[in-house]
Amino acid sequence: MGTEQEIQETKDRVMAQLENVIDPELGIDIVNLGLVYDILVDAEWNVTVVMTLTSMGCPLAGVIHDQVKQTLSELQELKEIGDVDVNIVWNPPWTKDKMSRYAKIALGVAD
Fold it and tell me: Membrane spanning segments where (predicted)?
């Protein structure tokens, strides 16, 4: 198992890579939308992305799931991470409050 700093650096790299996954309906990345709740890293550097979607009936759930795995495959090829799992959760439910200021401004929902 890596040090706490190495694990945090891996989580940061994964999160940065996930900024390349754009929600097809909203045109904003899943990180700024606040859809990524956590990045879990185990002793073998396998990664689980704990995330949600904007709605339970999201017709693009499969597309977003595949995009997450595809974008993280670049880190796998560099041997920075092992296997990738995507865990879609519904609790806590996503709300607009989870979006970054950038996403709120881009979507015209800024406070």
Answer: none
